[in-house]
Amino acid sequence: MPVLRDLRILLRLRYFRRLLCVRLLSQGADGVYQVALAAYVVFSPEKQTSAAAIASAMAVLLLPYSLVGPFAGVLLDRWRRRQVLVHGNLLRAVLAAITAVLVVSHVPDWLFYISALCVTAVNRFVLAGLSASLPRVVDAERLVLANSLSPTAGTLAATAGGGLAFVVRLVASDSDAAVVLLSACLYLSASLASLSMPRTLLGPDRQAVRPPLHTTLVVTARELVAAIRHLAEPRRREAVWALASMTLMRFCYGALLVLLLMLSRYTLTATPNEGLKLLGLALAVSGAGFFAAAVVTPGAAGRLGPGRWIVVCAGAATILVPALGLPFATGPLLVAAFVLGLITQGAKISTDTIIQARIDDGFRGRIFSVYDVLFNVAFVGAAGVAALMLPPDGRSAVLVVFVALIYAGVTVSMARYEGSRDGEGGDVSRETSPPR
Q1: What is the mean pLDDT of the segment spanning 67-81?
Q2: Residue 192 CB contacts under 8 Å (≥ 6 apart), including other chains
Q3: pLDDT band at residue 26, thresholds of 50, 70 and 90?
Q4: What pLDDT score was predicted for residue 142?
């Protein structure tokens, strides 16, 4: 099979393997850390969690970064990306260890959230750096396949990390602190793995003269405007449409995740521990969907084009979300978790590919940071909307239908755009898809 052949070629690329290793360790640590947070905030027996509380936690962890996130991209386009991976993961290891101490100390929630916020903020730099670095270790021919393998493998690593967190929590007598310490060890391993790549390998290409440090803030603002202007150019329009579609699909994913959390906590299980196990099973099934997306997307995006594959993903969600979600039963919800994993990751692979193909290397870090900020804002907004619409037991047909309508809007809008550019001959798939 061509995909398997190209996959073998990718894995023979030494520095692609090393970058992939850093991603696997880093996102595996993310999965461990996130399960520890969910267990501590949502599934602690002494806490009576509501949808509003979940939304508040998401806002505290994500919104502050969203205010400064666009500036991170400018720094990514100035700093050596390898150094971002080294120092970012090392800093997260230290911060995760501090979080473990706070969990054991039973400090006020606001202090715990500040520590978790710092880990999340650094995470944005690392993930954006990984995405911006990928074209430096893979040729343009196989960029679609690399985008299928690398981010999807990272997501699977996060899922596996979550499963490992459940095992450690069981062995350590429900100790959330022990799970957080495990994430610190994995972050440290990711930092050390980053040192296996040359300092200048991942870019960005530097100008001969660097601006003085004291002008960084002014230059940051100017270069952010320059990146937005770059994105607004007519030949970047496909990237704009893909970003908008993926942001709305992220909103839908966030709203359905809050619904799943509430159902797992109060409706589908009898105890918080059973609810946490159900959530873990749902995440594992969703991880299988991510893997399926990595297998299916290269061929589908190669035949249809990445933009039209986004249309197919959103269209499938329009039909399947209400069909599987409205029964509010464990079986259909687990099937929905698989479907959403496949659909969301398939659309993300396509969006990453479009951005990497349409955005120049010197702007990529800034655009991926904006991409992350849009993700955060959409996720927090979804949690806020879900908090307003969900009853205490999590059963809300109105929310499920509302999400399906958003997917339908994405399907129609993206399909119209793709139809309007059929005669332009500007298909990203022709530039980046693996050879057949």
Answers
A1: 72
A2: none
A3: very high
A4: 80
Range of the domain at 34: 2-432
108: cis peptide before it, omega within 30°? Answer: no
Residue 4: burial class (beta carbons within 10 Å; 0-12, 13-18, 19+): exposed
- Domain of 132, CATH number, reads 1.20.1250.20
Nearest residue to 287 (alpha-carbon basis) of 351, 350, 334: 334
pTM as predicted? 0.74
Look at residue 433 in the predicted model and tell me its pLDDT: 45
The CA-CA-CA angle for residues 71, 76, 77, to 5°, reads 100
Under 8 Å between Cβ of 163 and 41: no
Check the CA dihedral 77-81-87-92 and report its sign.
positive
Residue 139 gets which letter from DSSP? Answer: -
Can you give the pLDDT at residue 139?
A: 85
Domains held by the chain: number: 1
Q: Quick check: 208 pLDDT over 50?
A: no
For residues 337 and 346, give the distance between their C-alpha atoms in angstroms, rounded to a whole number.
14
